[in-house]
Amino acid sequence: MMTDILKLIQQRHSTRVPYDPNRPVAKDDLRQIIEAGRWAPTAHNMQNFEIVVVDDKKVLEKIGNTKSQVSEAFIRENYQQLSFSEEELLRKKVGILGTVFPPEWRDPAKLGEAVRESRPTPLNHRIRGSTVLLIVIYDARKRAPASEGDVLGFISLGCVMENMWLMAQSLGISVHVLSVFSAHVVEKEIKRILSIPEYMKVAFAFRMGYPVSKPTRHLRVRRDEETFTHYNKYENKGHR
Ligand SMILES: Cc1cc2nc3c(=O)[nH]c(=O)nc-3n(C[C@H](O)[C@H](O)[C@H](O)COP(=O)(O)O)c2cc1C
C-alpha cells in the first residue's frame, strides 16, 4: 500500500552506533537486501556496480585496522553545515547536529588546531561490532552514454544504496553508510585487502547489523515541502 512505502521511507535512518557482534544478519535477509539492490534503476540500465560482501572475521579485522585521516577540507566544510543545538537544527531543517562531532570541531577558534591534531585512526571505531559490510564498487572505465563526469552513474549508485537501505529497514536491520571508504588512501587499502582490480572504484560501504543497545533518539529533520517545490516556474525562496 502507498502509505506503507511512505512510512518505510520516513522510518529509514542512519544508525551510527556499535552493532552486536553476536547477532549476525541472517543469510536470507542479506540475500533480500542484495535482491533489492539488483532491481535498482540505473542510467541506461548500465548496472555498473558490484558488491563485495565482507563477512569473514579476519577480513573485517583487516578492514578495521585500515587507517583513515579526516581531511582539513572535511573539518572546515563540516563546520559550515553544523547546527549547535536541537533548536537551531529544527529551525534550519538541513544539516547535522554538531554534538555528534568532537568539541574542537565545533569551535571556530579551535578548527586550526583540530586540523593539526588530526591523526590517522583505524576504521575500527566506526565499524564496531559489524559482522557484515557491503562494499559497493563500480567500473570507472564505464559511463552512461554522454554522461559527463559520470553524474548519471553516481545517481544510479545512489538508487542501489536506497533500494538496499529500504529493504534493510523493512527487515528491521540497522544501516550505516560510510563514504570514508571511497577516500583515496582508504580506498587503496580496501582494494588491496579485497583484491579489487585497479579500474574499479569504491563508492561506499554499507554497514549492517543490530545495535548493541537501544540507540538514543536523535533529531532528524527535513525541509518543508513548500520551501523546495516550484510550480511551473522557479521562484526565489530565499536560498543563498
Ligand atoms: C551518498 C551518501 C553518503 C553518506 N555518507 C555517510 C557517511 O560517510 N557517514 C555517515 O555517518 N553517514 C553518511 N550518510 C548518511 C547521511 O548523513 C544521512 O542519510 C543524513 O544525515 C540523513 O539522516 P538519516 O539517514 O538518519 O535520515 C551518507 C548518505 C548518503 C546518501
Note down, in words, how this protein is organized.
The chain has 240 residues and is of the alpha+beta class. It has eight helices and eight strands; from the N terminus they run ααβαβαβαβαββαβαβ. It has helices at 2-11, 27-38, 57-65, 72-81, 86-92, 111-117, 151-170, 184-193, and strands spanning 50-54, 67-68, 82-83, 96-97, 121-122, 132-139, 174-178, 200-209. It has a four-stranded antiparallel beta sheet, with helices on both faces. It has a two-stranded antiparallel sheet with strand order 2-5. A two-stranded parallel sheet has the order 3-4. Strand 3 (82-83), helix 5 and strand 4 (96-97) form a beta-alpha-beta unit. Helix 2 packs antiparallel against helix 7. It is globular. It starts with a helix and ends in a 31-residue tail after the last strand. The mean pLDDT is 93. The structure holds flavin mononucleotide. The site of flavin mononucleotide has 11 residues, from strand 7. Residues 13-14, 16, 96, 176-180, 204, 220 line the site of flavin mononucleotide (FMN).
